[in-house]
Specification:
Strand 4, helix 3 and strand 5 form a beta-alpha-beta unit. The chain contains twelve helices and twelve strands. The chain is globular, with a radius of gyration of 20 Å. By secondary structure, it is of the alpha/beta class. The longest helix has 35 residues. It has a seven-stranded mixed β-sheet with strand order 1-2-3-4-5-6-7. Bound molecules: zinc ion (ZN). Zinc ion binds next to loops.
Length: 447
């Protein structure tokens, strides 16, 4: 997920500006203190002066200041600190019939090992995906993949809080050592577990895209420092909500929200625990655009397909098995976007290159295994719409705040959100706040 937290989290950036996120785990982000969640305007006061967002819907919910603090930390986990947002606004969920297109629960019948946090799903021919099983929430940990070859194992992504459990699950499958770990990008929800792999398999080498390697070398320590401060706040804020029975939207806590908050708390605690025992490991092998590993009979293609979630996302393709491992180029049910670090305008082209593989199985960075291209195409539509609207807004010299207020995603939002209150908050954060912010940044520079 997201990389840095410095601006928003530690310097009190004005509300409305994204803090750089962390890369590892995904949480919704906001600065620590004062952000108006209920409003898309920028003023950073606990009493949001909500100017009213025209959403084509009558209802809108306003998050209170406590919610704002929670979300800020949240984003932190998800995108490293920057990710997402400083201001969230969430809309009422009332009367929303919804065609839910975006995938939700991992649904694979076979489980090998696994734990309460993930299940090991065999993809055939010695390949296993560790798919997260937590309820969707503000925090997220990543899927991982294990490729067992003739004499060694290749791992894709190491999670932020489940590396120990995943190594144990892997050992139930094979006694072969891990030879390579591929980190799809630099966010801690994908790399924090590297340390445990190094301890368990001293001969392991880490591989990442060149930009990702640079960011791990230069930003990871700073991000982790910020997380040590932010995460405990995130945990207490959610615990407060569970005690008070009030959701982040100020409504009575639903079962969905309760399960989600409880899961977020567990995940944040695991993250903190892992943080305490992690050093920064800079990958030994950097991939500029392409690297192919021929390991026995297996061919493993590592490709840099262009910028999207970050500027250094690696995708992996197994041509024989027709399996694509996408990192956060694809994340479901709602994409993870960092306002200061993602490339929304370029994301559709990157997805198009990914789909040229015509993979039969896609393992996304988050969310269930996909067997067709419907969801990546939905993501493409979303980012295309955001790009078009932000382009028009930039042409009119509108501010970023005004751009966010005037964005209209009603036609596609339900495909991601359906009737879920939890998803709606995440959509507001990741898309209305962060994706619009990213596109605005890109298009303003391009101008
Ligand atoms: Zn990420």
């Amino acid at each position: 997920m997201a990389p840095r937290c410095d601006e928003a989290l530690s310097s009190g950036r004005p509300a409305g500006q994204a803090a750089p996120g962390r890369d590892g785990s995904h949480f919704a982000d906001q600065g620590p203190g004062k952000h108006n969640v209920g409003s898309r305007s920028g003023a950073g006061s606990d009493k949001a002066t909500d100017p009213g967002i025209r959403l084509g819907r009558t209802f809108r919910l306003r998050l209170d200041s406590g919610a704002i603090r929670v979300l800020s930390s949240v984003i932190v986990l998800a995108l490293g600190c920057e990710a997402a947002s400083a201001q969230l606004s969430t809309r009422a969920l009332a009367d929303r019939p919804a065609t839910v297109v975006a995938p939700h629960d991992p649904a694979s019948p076979e489980v090998f090992g696994g734990s309460e946090e993930f299940k090991m799903v065999p993809l055939g021919a010695g390949i296993y995906a560790a798919i997260r099983t937590e309820p969707l929430g503000l925090a997220a940990d990543c899927n991982a993949v294990f490729i067992v070859d003739d004499d060694a194992v290749i791992v894709v992504d190491t999670t932020s809080g489940s590396a120990r459990a995943e190594i144990a699950a892997l050992k139930r499958i094979t006694t072969k050592p891990v030879r390579y770990v591929i980190n799809t990008h630099w966010h801690d929800d994908h790399i924090l577990g590297n340390q445990l792999y190094k301890q368990t398999y001293p001969g392991v080498k880490f591989i990442a895209q060149t930009h990702t390697r640079d960011r791990i070398a230069t930003r990871t320590s700073e991000e982790r420092l910020a997380m040590r401060t932010q995460l405990p706040r995130f945990v207490s804020a959610l615990e407060e909500r569970l005690t008070s029975g009030q959701s982040l939207a100020g409504t009575p806590l639903s079962t969905e929200e309760r399960l989600s908050y409880e899961s977020d708390i567990r995940m944040a605690k695991r993250f903190l625990f892992s943080l305490a025992e992690a050093n920064t490991l800079v990958p030994e092998i950097a991939v500029d655009s392409a690297l192919t590993i021929y390991d026995g009979r297996r061919v493993i293609e590592l490709r840099y397909l262009g910028r999207s979630h970050t500027d250094g996302d690696l995708a992996i393709y197994l041509p024989e098995e027709q399996i694509a491992i996408t990192g956060d180029i694809v994340a479901a049910p709602i994409p993870y976007v960092g306002a200061n670090q993602s490339y929304v305008t370029e994301w559709p082209a990157t997805l198009a290159r990914l789909l040229e593989w015509h993979a039969k199985t896609l393992v996304p960075g988050h969310g269930p295994i996909l067997h067709d291209d419907a969801y990546p195409r939905l993501m493409t539509r979303l980012f295309t719409i955001v790009t078009e609207q932000v382009q028009a807004s930039v042409s009119l010299h509108r501010s970023l705040d005004d751009t966010r207020k005037n964005i209209h995603l009603e036609g596609i939002e339900d495909s991601f959100v359906g009737n879920s209150a939890v998803r709606r908050v995440i959509f507001e954060n990741n898309i209305v706040y962060a994706a619009v912010g990213a596109a605005y940044r890109e298009l303003s520079v391009a101008k």
